[in-house]
Write a structure and sequence with these properties.
about 240 residues; about 45% helix; about 25% strand; DNA binding; TACO1_YebC-like_2nd/3rd_dom
Length: about 240
């Protein structure tokens, strides 16, 4: 198994178990997708992907439809995607994806978390290069041969593919998302969920006490409503 498999396994054991947080994130994704490409999933590939993810997270259909309708209102504020970078104690690089309607508030909050937990907020590009920006797709495993599927999808950018208890996972570079989505839809293969992740190229092992120091900062960051995803180089 490759790095994507190990990364996913570690993250599944960790955070984002709070359903309310998940629904908030999906709601913001819907707003950004609708503002970018309109409220019709048939003509908006990004919105189709978000709706699939909402279904996978067991978000009620009424909630999704309500969010799309609200996002279509011109008075609804759009969210801007902003990336923050920095270091936790013990040299652990942290990459933070946010979606905010008030950048000043988000910057101030993120900076305060680093300051309170003995971290250092970095400049743009200071740690992003330490992570591979990937896209992923999950499809049903029934009746499919993973090796055969890998050979078929390699031309569309898929670099790693594996089966787990949730189905078949495919990982590829960030830029391959559109081509893979289009090919899966063309083949009539159901996309259970899809998304983007940043996989650390190298991780660092810490002592139990050092892990606790880093976790303190990660928890503060992840509790922030503007934060969508947090990635780090600490070995899990």
């Amino acid at each position: 198994m490759g790095r994507a498999f190990e990364f996913r396994k570690a993250r599944k054991m960790k955070r984002w178990s709070a359903m309310a947080k998940t629904f908030t994130r999906i709601g913001k994704d819907i707003v950004m997708a609708v503002k970018e490409g309109g409220g019709n999933p048939e003509s908006n590939a990004r919105l189709r992907a978000v709706i699939q993810n909402a279904k996978a997270a067991n978000m009620p259909k009424d909630n999704v439809e309500r969010a799309i309708k609200k996002a279509s209102d011109k008075d609804t504020a759009n969210f801007k995607e902003v990336l923050f970078e920095g270091y936790a104690p013990h040299g652990i690089a942290i990459l933070i994806e946010t979606a905010t309607d008030n950048n000043n508030r988000t910057v101030a909050n993120i900076r305060s978390y680093f300051n309170k937990c003995n971290g250092t907020m970095g400049t743009q590009g200071s740690v992003e290069f330490m992570f591979d920006h990937t896209c992923n797709f999950r499809i049903p495993a029934e009746g499919r041969d993973v090796e055969e599927l890998e050979l078929e999808m390699i031309d569309f950018g898929v670099e790693e593919i594996f089966a787990d208890e949730d189905g078949i996972m495919m990982y590829a570079p960030f830029e391959s998302f559109g081509a893979i989505q289009k090919e899966l839809e063309h083949r009539g293969i159901e996309i259970l969920s899809s998304g983007f992740e940043r996989i650390p190229q190298v991780t660092k092992e810490l002592t139990e006490d050092q892990v606790a120091d880093v976790e303190k900062l990660l928890e503060k960051i992840e509790e922030d409503d503007d934060v969508m995803n947090v990635y780090h180089t600490m070995q899990e």
